[in-house]
Design goal:
The structure holds two protein chains of two kinds. By secondary structure, chain A is mainly beta. Chain A has no helices and eleven strands. In chain A, the strands form two sheets. In chain A, strands 2, 4, 5, 6, 9, 10 and 11 form a seven-stranded mixed beta sheet that branches. In chain B, the strands form three sheets. In chain B, strands 2, 5, 6, 10, 11 and 12 form a six-stranded mixed beta sheet that branches. The chains are: A mainly beta, B mainly beta.
């Protein structure tokens, strides 16, 4: 069983749809993250949750709405997306937030296509 | 401000050749951490190594080795006797120890092709 599991692996949605991405970590970590990976761009940090509190919102449009109900689960709710939001969305977790030293453990990502 | 530069966008080498992936970073902090990650075609980024700013010893792990040089702000990664399974995108990343928002900055990545 992988440490960080993301579902679905692939998602195609229209611009008027509402969908959610799910992430679950089985590592007992205290922080969870959403990253966006677009072609030819660096990995972009979207949200950080540390001990279930949001500590970073990296100027992400409101059409992306995160939710962290507990330290093991993280959601990304999507609504009225744009075609430029098509990307690979990666979830990650780390053990010791706030000190910079914890490596991230990533899931396989959700490949999102907005039509 | 933090910044990570991986100048090599794409590299192709023939199997069994050695290859070095370059990483140059910028930070104003004296305490920071550097990372390398591998992203195979499956999509998942796999953690390879972490190095803190006070430890300049080079590290070797099997066919992988890392050369950390603070004088040139570089943290280069060498694969010796490359294999086809090494084909992937490799990311260098930087995290400052005092950052409270757990921000890890990634480079744009180097896509490595190992040709049989």
């Amino acid at each position: 069983e992988t440490g960080v599991t993301q579902t679905p692996r692939h998602l195609v949605m229209g611009m008027t749809n509402k969908k959610s991405l799910k992430c679950e970590q089985h590592l007992g970590h205290n922080a969870m993250y959403w990253y966006k990976q677009s072609a030819k761009k660096p990995l972009e940090l979207m949200f950080v949750y540390s001990l279930e509190e949001r500590v970073e919102n990296n100027s992400v449009p409101s059409r992306f709405s995160p939710e962290c109900p507990n330290s093991s689960h993280l959601f990304l709710h999507l609504h009225t997306l744009q075609p430029e939001d098509s990307a690979l969305y990666l979830c990650a977790s780390s053990q010791d937030p706030g000190q910079g030293r914890s490596p991230l453990h990533f899931g396989n990502g959700t490949r999102l296509t907005v039509t | 401000a933090q910044k990570v530069t991986q100048a090599q966008t794409e590299i192709s080498v023939v199997e069994k050749e050695d290859v070095t992936l370059d990483c140059v970073y910028e930070t104003r902090d004296t305490t920071y951490y550097l990372f390398w990650y591998k992203q195979p075609p499956s999509g998942e980024l796999v953690f390879l190594i972490r190095r803190n700013s006070f430890d300049e010893q080079n590290e070797i792990s099997g066919r992988y080795s890392w050369n950390f040089q603070k004088s040139t702000s570089s943290f280069n990664f060498t694969i010796t006797a490359s294999q086809v399974v090494d084909s992937a995108v490799y990311f260098c990343a930087l995290s400052e120890a005092l950052n409270r928002d757990d921000k890890i900055i990634f480079g744009k990545g180097t896509r490595l092709h190992i040709l049989p």
